Recover the amino acids of this structure.
């Protein structure tokens, strides 16, 4: 199936050249792909996939090991932010 | 409110969302701000200027030269001074109506809860997850709203957590403790564009004033994310996690 991937802020450099974070890029993935597997495939470093969203809805860590993706979904990842 | 105060706050009292009633609520409000850095600086300045009656400032650091690029409550002559002292002086100059108290020592969890019980809400402007988790746990224990802001590089986030209301999420529902490393996530390691902390700290002040005056009755918890590199803003609803180790009910926690 085909989904759209958006990597925001400092993670945007992991996307193909020229892709804007808010537009994202299309990716073919297997039906049973989990968010965790997808994050690994996108080469997001451990600990930097802080906030994961599918179609703008927050995906808690407990659901990231499940095949929760469907055709046409928008998968977005934001890095952690703690500074002040 | 005397004539001078009416004039000082007139542009705010004019707003139907605030009015006299809201301005009086601000005057009666007590707000704890943890961290007098890039977020705490504008937040404290706007809350003082806007007429919040009492601010409690907590920070155990001293002002350094490298802080001044973004921590606008402090000035060049404040280098080496405790941040809470420097900030208190600036805020008293900004608005003598606001009562400022300072906490310069690090608080343990019990002391933090005791402090929280004496205020109406808390603003988190700290620079690490360990402190953020401690503040959240204290807010859950004391039942106080938490206005959480964070900024780094060209990225910012803000959310208001309402553990004082039933069935509302807390910070740990969104970011479970233990899943996030603390290293390399602060401004000294990553850098930050000066006004990025200013925007988020100012938004924290807006949210604090919204909570105090009661305009905007929606209590849904949203996390707002800002990518200043592209100008993108995004908002995501934060659901309560029944299994949350801090506020969850699944394991019989309070």
């Amino acid at each position: 199936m085909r989904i759209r991937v958006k990597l925001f802020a400092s993670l945007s450099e992991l996307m193909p050249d020229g892709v804007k974070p808010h537009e994202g890029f299309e990716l073919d993935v297997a039906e049973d792909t989990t968010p965790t597997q997808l994050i690994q495939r996108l080469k997001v470093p451990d600990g930097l996939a802080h906030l994961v969203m599918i179609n703008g809805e927050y995906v808690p860590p407990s659901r990231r090991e499940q095949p929760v993706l469907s055709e046409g979904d928008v998968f977005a990842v934001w890095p952690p932010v703690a500074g002040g | 409110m005397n004539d001078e105060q009416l004039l000082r706050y007139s542009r705010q009292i004019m707003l139907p969302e605030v009015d006299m009633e809201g301005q009086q609520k601000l005057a009666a409000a007590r707000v704890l701000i943890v961290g007098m850095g890039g977020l705490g600086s504008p937040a404290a300045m706007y809350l003082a200027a806007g007429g919040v009656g009492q601010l409690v400032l907590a920070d155990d650091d001293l002002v350094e030269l490298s802080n001044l690029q973004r921590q606008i409550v402090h000035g060049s002559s404040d280098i080496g001074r405790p941040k809470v002292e420097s900030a208190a002086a600036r805020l008293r100059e900004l608005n003598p109506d606001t009562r400022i108290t300072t906490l310069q020592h690090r608080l343990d969890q019990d002391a933090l809860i005791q402090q929280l019980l004496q205020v109406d809400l808390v603003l988190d402007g700290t620079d690490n997850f360990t402190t953020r988790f401690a503040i959240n746990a204290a807010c859950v224990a004391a039942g106080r709203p938490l206005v959480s802001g964070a900024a780094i590089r060209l990225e910012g986030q803000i959310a208001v957590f309402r553990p004082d209301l039933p069935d509302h999420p807390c910070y740990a529902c969104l970011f479970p403790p233990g899943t996030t490393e603390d290293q390399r996530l602060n401004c000294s390691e990553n850098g930050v564009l000066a006004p990025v902390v200013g925007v988020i700290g100012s938004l924290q002040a807006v949210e604090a004033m919204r909570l105090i005056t009661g305009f905007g009755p929606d209590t849904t918890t949203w996390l707002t994310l800002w990518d200043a590199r592209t100008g993108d803003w995004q908002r995501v609803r934060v659901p309560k996690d029944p299994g949350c180790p801090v506020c969850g009910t699944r394991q019989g926690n309070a």
Summary: Chain B has a mean pLDDT of 93.
